[in-house]
Amino acid sequence: MAYIIDGKKISKEIKDELKEKVAVFKAQGKAACLAVIQVGEDPASSVYVNNKKKACEYIGIDSLSVQFPPNVTEAELLGKIEELNRDEKVNGILVQLPLPKHIDEDKVIKTIMPEKDVDGFHPQSVGALSIGQKGFVSCTPAGVIELLERSGIEIEGKECVVMGRSNIVGKPMAMLLLRENGTVTITHSKTANIKEITKRADILVVAVGKPKMVDSSYVKEGAVVIDVGIHRDQNNKLCGDVDYADVEPHVQAITPVPGGVGPMTIAMLMKNCVSSME
Question: Would residue 103 count as lying in a domain?
């Protein structure tokens, strides 16, 4: 019987710790504010934005919501970001992705000041991570590290495999595991003999973006499996990149979907906001 890593419980612990910190800051007359920019009304994005607002409210961080229509020009959006960069009351700026095709995401990310880049996507933040300097870390990979550490799972000296090489999850995930002294391999769509590699993993982090792709044939007996994916299956039920029912009997620990990595992303965003105050 695998140990089920409870992301809901761990994310609440983190938010409660942050709530206490923010209360201390407020007593000193310091406030934090997160600005969230949304373009258009994509239903999934609206859910995420709403969850971020709720988390801010719970912790005691002010949230400023900026909503643009889908046809907003790139110049207007960048102008708003520049305005928020200059606003001393705003600690963190977050632009909800994806953006409409006519807007250059890369340009938008680069326009946010690194000191306010609570998503950890700015090239300066990514560069700092790669050379072991202080900076904001992408929230999902940072959340995975917290899940492992708070579940008493040792990373040091372990063979870690990250499936997926995206800029938002795969690459920063590999660098964070390396920072914790794991021995790290990244696999991707062009990797040959992928199962031979994943079956070596003591810790397998799956971020491939394909529902239930990873079954027990990819996994070593007794491994720890972290599932970053989130999808809806043919019955409209939430599922991850891992075939949970097939993999769970073979592993030491596993994250469920929902209730695993998802809640951690927002908790780590809040942690970055509080760090920006500090």
Answer: yes
Does 269 fall in a domain?
A: no
**Do residues 159 and 196 touch, judged by C-beta distance below 8 A?**
no
Same domain, 150 and 232: yes
Q: Is residue 80 part of a domain?
A: yes
CATH code for position 221: 3.40.50.720
CA distance 27 to 173: 36
Binned at pLDDT 50, 70 and 90, residue 184 comes out as very high
Q: Active-site positions?
A: 52, 96, 119
Per mean pLDDT, which range of 35-44, 78-87, 140-149, 163-172 is the poorest?
35-44
Residue 150's domain comprises 139-261
Largest CA distance in the chain: 57
Q: Does 44 reside within a domain?
A: yes
Q: What is the DSSP letter of 108?
A: H
- Residue count of the chain: 278
Q: Cβ atoms within 10 A of the Cβ of 234, count? A: 7
CB 118 within 8 A of CB 99: no
17 three-state secondary structure? helix
Tell me the CATH number at 91: 3.40.50.10860
| Residue pair 182/141 in contact by the 8 Å Cβ criterion | no
Half-sphere exposure (Cβ direction) of 65: Cα atoms closer than 13 Å: 12
pLDDT at 44: 80
Q: Which residues pair with 33 in a beta bridge?
A: 62
In whole angstroms, how far apart are CA 97 and each of 100, 130, 166, 208, 216? 9, 23, 14, 18, 32
